[in-house]
Amino acid sequence: MELVKNRQIKEKATIQAEKVLYLCIEQGLSFKISQGCVLTLAPPLIISPEELNLAMDKLEYALTQVFRHNI
């Protein structure tokens, strides 16, 4: 998932990506950031639907905090 500040000009949201990463790490969700703004998640091959939903909830929470509440 690539994070951008402005969809029209696709300005990279590098600072926001780092904030999302740290909020997720605080919740126990880890992933990589490449090119400064691309979030790369690599869940295990064996994952339950509940675990996947929990991971997506954590990511959604972090994205909301950073982009809507300017955390």
UniProtKB/TrEMBL annotation:
SUPFAM superfamilies: PLP-dependent transferases. InterPro entries: PyrdxlP-dep_Trfase (IPR015424), PyrdxlP-dep_Trfase_small (IPR015422). This is Aminotransferase class III-fold pyridoxal phosphate-dependent enzyme. It comes from Megamonas rupellensis. The lineage of its organism: Bacteria, Bacillati, Bacillota, Negativicutes, Selenomonadales.
